[in-house]
Amino acid sequence: MNLKGQNFTEINPDDFPNSVNYKIGIVVSEWNIDITSNLLKGAKDQLVNLGVKNENISISWVPGSFELVYGCKKLSNENFDAIIAVGCVIKGETDHYDFICNAVSNGIMHLNALGTTPVIFCVLTDHNKNQSLARSGGEHGNKGTEAAIAAVKMISFN
After folding, report:
1. Which of 70, 126, 129, 157 shows its CA 20 to 30 Å from the CA of 20?
2. Would 9 be classed as within a structural domain?
3. Domains held by the chain: number
4. % pLDDT > 90, the chain
């Protein structure tokens, strides 16, 4: 999805189900916190825009993106309607980037395949910080906003 491009339609909150009682857990990586806090803000603002009560949004922090899977797994045992995993991995000089990106995406995929609570992937996997800035409130929109939309849509998927 890309809110600033041709791939996503205009959002009308009236087209979404009544979300007032939805409970959303958001697990946020502290690594690259300048990026993840922008993604978190986008997600929270959009959830409230779609009708979710602010007090029904729970934020949990983990050290890095690798720990998102465990944090989401723990929240999936609680009474949340959806969970959003927020992280940012920026490519460096080693293979660490590949290992973390694969582990996190596979871990979240497994939570979705085996669990009953939708876990939304809001992890930027960019080659440089400028790309991450562009996707966390910059010229390419805010992937946190898009993750919030996906969460509400997946809750009502049945």
Report:
1. 70
2. no
3. 1
4. 76
- CATH number of the domain at 41, please: 3.40.50.960
pLDDT for residue 6? 45
Q: How far apart are CA 33 and CA 124, in angstroms?
A: 12
Q: Is residue 13 part of a domain?
A: no
- How does DSSP classify residue 113? H
Is the pLDDT at 20 greater than 90? The verdict is no
Active site residue 96: yes
* Residue 79 within a domain: yes
Q: Which residue range is the domain that position 105 belongs to?
A: 22-155
CA 147 to chain centre: 5
Whole-number Å distance between alpha carbons of 7 and 33? 28
Q: CA triplet 86, 55, 143: central angle to 5 degrees?
A: 25
Measure CA of the first residue to CA of the last residue in the chain; give whole Å: 21
Helix axes 33-49, 143-155, angle to 10 degrees: 40
Is the whole model's pTM more than 0.70, yes or no? yes
Instruction: Say if residues 89 and 65 touch (Cβ distance below 8 Å).
Output: yes
Classify residue 130: in a domain, yes or no: yes
Tell me the CA distances in angstroms from 83 to 9, 91, 131, one per residue in order: 23, 25, 25
Query: What's the pLDDT at 143?
Result: 96
Asked if pLDDT for residue 106 goes beyond 80, the answer is yes
